[in-house]
Amino acid sequence: xxxxxxxxxxxxxxxxxxxxxxxxxxxxxxxxxxxxxxxxxxxxxxxxxxxxxxxxxxxxxxxxxxxxxxxxxxxxxxxxxxxxxxxxxxxxxxxxxxxxxxxxxxxxxxxxxxxxxxxxxxxxxxxxxxxxxxxxxxxxxxxxxxxxxxxxxxxxxxxxxxxxxxxxxxxxxxxxxxxxxxxxxxxxxxxxxxxxxxxxxxxxxxxxxxxxxxxxxxxxxxxxxxxxxxxxxxxxxxxxxxxxxxxxxxxxxxxxxxxxxxxxxxxxxxxxxxxxxxxxxxxxxxxxxxxxxxxxxxxxxxxxxxxxxxxxxxxxxx
Length: 318
Description:
By secondary structure, the chain is mostly helical. The protein contains 13 helices and no strands.
């Protein structure tokens, strides 16, 4: 008996079976879950590329902290190399934390009465706080953000030396205060990164910080005599110094960084004491830091600033 319909053994082509035309659609949230799963994997894989590149380009033998390197482990790290490694930290690896650490380094100096007293006496951080803070920020940005041999870097250092020279000649700025301020610009980025960021610094990066800021100290004619290995002339290197070895007494920038950290800790212990001038400079600087914060949020902003202080600094400021 004839039939008008033909039998098709393929179930996929039967009416109602739309497997070919309408593939199964995943829920939208599945893509979000997939992204949340894959992002940490890719981030963990890629975020270490820069430090691996630095370690390959500038091999540095690890050593126990506080142990002076032997002659076989001396670093030939030049100022240019140190600058490039520090620039990587400041602009690529930890830009936000590095910037805030430098700002806090300046803020921390106001816990020393001899520094805050001069600022109050010259009205540099009371009546003209915004201008003084902006000037300092610009000079530090020029020094840390440009090649050490760049004309604007040289001009920034010369300008800074000119500003300090009159007070140094009058005996109003001591070498100890200059050395302490310099130490904070080297130490605070390292401390903040170790405290708040996703990885700790490698020894080669710490060596770069020490090498760079010791060279800046040489350019400012700061006497490193108070340090354990201090007392011997400026560092040498490409275009004006950067190496911390030889006649200056340090095997590398890491040794200098460790010694200046030890000295600064002792200096703070003796001199970071409560004083009304500390409070005045802290109040004015905090107002500058919170300039763009809405008025209703400023009290909370002050609490954040206080929370970032350690007990010694908080006691000296409040």
